[in-house]
Amino acid sequence: MNKLFTISIQDSFGFRSLKAKVLNWVRPFNTFCFLDNHEYQLAPHSQECLLGAGVVRDISGDQATLLSGLNNTTGWWMGHLSYDLLPAEPQGSLHKPDPHGFPQLYFFQPEILIRLKEDEISIEAPDPEKVYHAILNTALPAATEGTDLKIQSRMSREEYLDTIRKLQAHILRGDCYEINFCQEFYAANAHIDPVEVYTRLSEISPNPFSGLYRNGDRWLICASPERFIKKQGTHILSQPIKGTARRVREDAEVDEAQRAQLQQSEKDRAENVMIVDLVRNDLARICQEGTVKVDELFGVYPFPQVHQMISTISGELSPRFSLVIFWKRCFQWAP
Question: Which of 148, 215, 226, 331 is spaced 20 to 30 Å from 297 by Cα?
């Protein structure tokens, strides 16, 4: 039976120091999920820093039907979905191998849940005060020298340019009107400290959707400015990003000019409204009629390295759709 322990934090220095201790305290756990908002106030803001550690129960596998196991659960569940888990139809040629071995679906109910805000920490655990004192007594490791990594692309220059030409041909034929072309960069046989790498990444580029996730001996490090989808009750919200301008933080006047130029850019507005229309269309397929709306169009928000143009679209989920169907429809977006 979990108990709740809450204690106040005196100042921002204490908050950031305690957050660092929480992140290092959780190292020994084989399964955990650490999510960090980095003190952004991008609405709808609900959690500043959240950690789930240890496993009470979990769901793992490669079948989308396993999601139905979450339909009647209560409390916090954390985990991941693979894009390949949820295609509407077989897409054999689109499947990409995963050399890291993550299950296509994994969710766990944490044994310990920690919520950290600027002015307090709350711990839910069988013995939360013991957890709190263990965190306080966690020593922060000294920074180490960076590891030299040889970063490689999965594609040669020739393969990359050939793919670009094929994509251009698709656009000219009218097969599609916008394409997000991604490629993988990797370092083979890398030996890193994931906690230290995440900490350093957060110092360089803190983002509102940052996270460090451990699933056995597999790790995922994230620093993203973009919210894909949020579902709270029947309310669904998506905040796609299209439009970027470089920050010039050493010159406030030039930086503001960059922001204003992005705000008025016809090219960036055209790309942004294109993705807004796509999301509106996809939400309309799963939401109650007449509830889909654009809450904000062409909002420009500052991040450490760039200004981003973000729009917000929301709707109310139709009662006809289960959790499994909801996720299936979400993962069909922008195929």
Answer: 331
Domain extents in the chain? 3-146+193-224, 152-186, 227-330
Domain 3-146+193-224 has CATH 3.60.120.10: yes
Lowest mean pLDDT among 114-123, 288-297, 318-327: 318-327
* 3 state SS of 229: strand
CA distance 146 to 208: 25
Q: Which of 26, 25, 214, 237 is nearest to 106 (CA)?
A: 214
Q: How many beta carbons lie within 10 A of that of residue 272, not counting itself?
A: 21
Contact 188, 135 (CB under 8 A): no
Token pair of 120 as six digits: 């307090």
- Amino acid, single-letter form, for residue 146: G
Whole-angstrom distance, CA of residue 227 vs CA of residue 244 = 16
Lowest-pLDDT choice from 158-167, 187-196, 248-257: 187-196
Give this prediction's pTM.
0.90
Q: Cite the active site residues.
A: 226, 242
